[in-house]
Amino acid sequence: MTDPIEARVASTILQTPRELVIGGRTILAAPPTTATLILASEAIATLPQVTLDSERVAEETLRIARDCRALGEILAILMLGAKGITETRTTTKKKLFGLVSSTSTETIDLKGELAQHLLLHLSPADMYRLFTELISDFQLADFFGITTFLIGVNLLRPTREVETETTVFGRSSEA
């Protein structure tokens, strides 16, 4: 059962994480941010740039499937958010009855782990449903409006200085 629109609006405004259960694992999907959208866009750009023949769907899909591991990465980015794709863990080991200690720091790729989990446990239909559900929260129209406005401003910016000195016809400006 889907949540009423009021509940979805409230959770979007309050930026509460969404709880998702995938393959017996509960994952809190991070609230949408611009940084997450940018990372997802970078991952989407790694998908193969091909035009598929709609009359040969099976053959075309199987031909490019090997290049689509990025689908799991894209979903993992949308779920974890830009802040949650890696985690740094510090461990302290004590030796010689606690007299000597050593500290090590390790960075864990949560995005890679989740991407692998998603690819192993989601069917293509479930993956598509999850992607459309997550992307609907990203306020894409607002992001599009910002980027369109800024691109327009960039186009209006002068690219070179225009000479302002006027010379009389037939005379040199050095005279």
Category by helix and strand content? alpha+beta
Q: Based on CA inertia axes, which overall geometry fits?
A: extended
Count of strand segments: 4
Largest sheet report: 2 strands, antiparallel
Order of strands in the sheet with most strands = 1-2
Question: Quick summary of this structure?
Answer:
Helix content is 46%, strand content 17%. It is of the alpha+beta class and 175 residues long.
Outline the structure in words.
- The chain is built from seven helices and four strands.
- It is 46% helix and 17% strand.
- By secondary structure, the protein is an alpha+beta fold.
- β1 (18-22) and β2 (25-29) form a beta hairpin.
- The model has no long low-confidence stretch (mean pLDDT 80).
- The chain starts with a helix and ends in a 19-residue tail after the last helix.
- Strands 1-2 form a two-stranded antiparallel ribbon.
- The chain has one domain.
Attribute tags:
175 residues; alpha+beta; two-stranded antiparallel ribbon; two-stranded antiparallel sheet; extended
